[in-house]
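Schema walkthrough. Field components (list of strings):
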Amino acid sequence: MDLLVETEIACPHCGELFPLLVDTSQREQTMVEDCSVCCRPINLTLACRPGEILDVRESD
Ligand SMILES: [Zn+2]
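Field assembly_structure (string):
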């Protein structure tokens, strides 16, 4: 099974969409990604099951 799943997230600062590769082997995870457009940090809360992303929440 491929545990790396690509999804698209929207930056809460500038609204830009960009792809994110998620390791779905962890059920609940939080991470901070820098927006590729405005370079501001985005706090991400992810809910996953192996091979699938169930929920993505972005906050600034
Ligand atoms: Zn941005």
